[in-house]
Amino acid sequence: IAEQVSHHPPVSVFHVSNRKDGFCITGSILAKSKFYGNSLSALLDGQAKLTFLSSGEEYVITMPYAHCKGILYGTMTMELGGKVTIDCEKSNYRAELEFKLKPFFGGSTSINQISGKIKSGEEVLASLDGHWDGEVYINDLKNGSTDIFWNPTSEVRKQRLKRHIVLFEEQTEFESERLWQHVTSAIGKGDQHKATQEKFVLEEEQRHAARERKENGTEWKSLLFWHNATTNEWHYKYEDLRPWDPLNDIAQYEKDGVLQTMQRHLSNRMSTHKNMCISNQVARHKNRHRKASDQPSNNSQNTESSCSTPESVQELSDDEGLGSPCTQCGKETSHLKEIHTAVLSLQKAQQDIHKNLTALSKESLYRRGSPQNFVDSRCWFLLCIFLTFQLFINYVFK
Question: Which spans are transmembrane here (predicted)?
Fold first, then answer.
């Protein structure tokens, strides 16, 4: 989940959640650029916080910068450069890595080089060197052994996550693909003049909206993240750092930017939510009743009010509709039921496939075993006949 939370300066915030594998990542990036004539660097000023849910350890990670050479002349190349640190305050471990740019007189082996060290406090435990897109070796300084730390083989590359995007028709108004669609289309067609015009129109609309907010005194608020002014950190509004419960948690899913976890005990949670809603409505009706009972009834000439006797919850439900859940409950129940039905259908299909595979396996074993048993029986039968015939010949010619 990612969102640009500021335009001046351009800050983007992201959140990654994988509770089943036991980690979450939250970070913010301030994009900067530096121009050096024939080269350009895109700086990522910010950090990411990796949290391991089971141990509660937090690793703060900085990021390298992207360096592009050959903008005006020469072969255009892209590299990663700069120093990266990985810190864990709880365990007191620290890693320092350096992404090295190719030197002017360097060969092909000097491309994408990396070096670094792993420390515990001030003690250096190990050193690293190699190529970040190839083999990286780790040297244990205590025993002097060297092992392969990272090797992106073809099998590893095949395991890279596939890119999934939200369907265009399901995107909201301010999502990047929808917001910049006309600019992107013009660039794709090679029409730079049209792209510049569309960019100008888009920026003017944004400036006009900002002026209106300022005139109306309306503060712009982020949709999915909130800012902690004390620590100057951005946090995901729906962050869930609970360790994964395999007995209760089924799967994580995202809807409208909100990450949620589908659980087996849905009925208990929904009934609790529903009961809380009903209790709140009953309390409100009791308050109204107390106010009404203090005033004389216009339709009654008796000294005693006909409303002096409290109504039952059932009567309130019939009159005011308390028996029906609130709108939020209804939407959440409907959505969870849809997901639950889909998961059950997948589980049923998986069970059917498992049954079919088991049946095929048994049939295969039976077919393998049947000819073998037949061959074994036939061999014994022929052996008996041969021995009987041999005894008969010996008896005749004795």
Answer: 380-397
Residue 63 to residue 61: CA distance in whole angstroms: 7
CA–CA distance, 118 with 149 (Å, rounded to integer): 12
Number of H helices, E strands in the chain: 7, 16
For 72-140, give the DSSP string: SSS--EEEEEEEEEEEETTTTEEEEEEEEPPPTT--GGGTTEEEEEEEETTEEEEEEEEETTS-EEEEE
Report whether pLDDT(291) > 80.
Answer: no
CB atoms within 10 A of CB 234: 23
How many Å is the Cα radius of gyration of the chain?
35
Domains observed in the chain: 1-74+221-264 (no CATH), 92-161 (no CATH), 165-220 (3.30.70.3490)
Over residues 44-86, the pLDDT tens digits come to 999 999 999 999 999 999 999 999 999 888 889 999 999 999 9
Structure confidence by residue, pLDDT tens digits, 253-268: 998 889 999 998 754 4
- 303 in helix, strand or coil? coil
pTM: 0.64
Tell me which residue of 132, 123, 129, 124 sits closest to 146, measured CA to CA.
129
25-62 as b/e: b if 16+ CB within 10 A: ebbbbeeeeeeeeebebebbebbbebbbbeeeebbebb
